[in-house]
Amino acid sequence: MAFINVKDCLTDPRQLIKLILLVVCVSITIYQLSECVNKIISPPITSHYRFRYNQSIKYPAITVCRRPSFKTFLFPQYGIRASTLDLAANNLFEHFPFNTTTLEHFLNATTYDFKEVVPLYGYNETGMGENLWFRKIFFTKRGLCHTMIPKEMSQNFAIGGGFWLYLKHTAKDKTKDTNGLSTTGFEIHIHDEFEVIKEEDGSNTGFVYVETGEDLHVTLTVQSYSQVSTKQQPCVKDPTYGKSRCEQKCVHNFAARKVGCRVPWLRDLDQDYPLCSDYVSINEITNAMTEEFSSRALSECNCQGRCNNTLYKYQIVHRRDVDVIQGSSSTIAIYFDSNLVTELIDVISYDWNIFLADIGGSLGFLLGLSVIGFVNVIEEIVKLIFRMREKTEDFPELELEGKGEGKEGESLKSVMEFVANCDMYEEKHGEKITKY
């Protein structure tokens, strides 16, 4: 392997060109190696989009909320106006009889329990069975909502393998508000079991509205997304974690800590607070849950997204008015009509194997080095260092005298050595020369 003689670079153009090419190649190699290091520190992510057929499928959770949400005709018994639609209004509980009753008793009496809303139901070809979990949630606007969570997966991709609900209503006629929206019916929220419904309409959930006296068929499709946790976009790998639940817990705990008591629509509290017993405390909790204070609480909690997300989309394929005999009650069927699942998967597209391959390719292609050649380069560098060190130790005075003289200094030195040799020869053999 040929090496560049640095001393000849100023006199030999070929050596100079070799030096320039070597510097350029080394610079490019260093740049490529730095890019490889950056990729190994922050690896690029590649997304794969694919379809998969499942033999069985997991159904989402279903949350049912009734409209109207409260039995407002009972409100005057508790010192509240009968026209009230939101319990978060300021000073609403100013005349509430805290001495004789509690907020929990008030809500249980003025909202609709599960049997009043869903007297009949079925899931996975089983009617009124034990294959569902049930959970109830209080809201300031929606009143009492009921969540049904499947205990088992379904293998029937038809109407019989999903949910069927008979929804009971007491309204005689369909009514609408000033915006033309129905005020008598049912909200059907379709969501992942580890996500929760917030006070805002439709956040984190699919939303189906069933008016009184209607029959609906709703088909579902599922999309799953698997994200890779990175420093730029971290996520939580726990399959039981939900971002909306984390945010809800954060805001509710913030409000309870600030006031020192709780109300029934606060959930997932870290400690047991006493029930608020005056309207001033309830107003403070309501103000603490406003957008301004909620954003401050969320900034402290830093609720991250899930690494594995499941999104359920719905489509209404059948909608009609029910028979006169059924009256104002409604029915809804929610089911998968196909076992096709859409998946979007993020994977790390750079690892140590690719890193080592890139290093070998950069060195071999740009510098033309093999492993043996690279070892020879190191050997020559080490030898050069030792040679320079030995010369410096043996002739320190010559090194100092010779600096800056160049070729003229070397010529003068040769002449002086020649003269000195001549003088020595004359002294030694002078007598013999005179004799002859």
UniProtKB/TrEMBL annotation:
Keywords: Ion channel, Ion transport, Membrane, Sodium, Sodium channel, Sodium transport, Transmembrane, Transmembrane helix, Transport
Biological process according to GO: sodium ion transmembrane transport
Gene: AUGUSTUS-3.0.2_05481
GO cellular component, one term: plasma membrane
Organism: Tribolium castaneum (Red flour beetle)
Protein name in the entry: Uncharacterized protein
GO terms assigned for molecular function: ligand-gated sodium channel activity
Transmembrane segments: 354-378
Family membership: Belongs to the amiloride-sensitive sodium channel (TC 1.A.6) family.
Localization annotation: Membrane
InterPro entries (UniProt xref): ENaC
Pfam families attached to this UniProt entry: ASC
PANTHER family with a match to the protein in the record: AMILORIDE-SENSITIVE SODIUM CHANNEL-RELATED, PICKPOCKET 17, ISOFORM A
Keyword Ion transport carried by entry: yes
Topological type in the membrane: Multi-pass membrane protein
Coiled-coil spans in chain: none
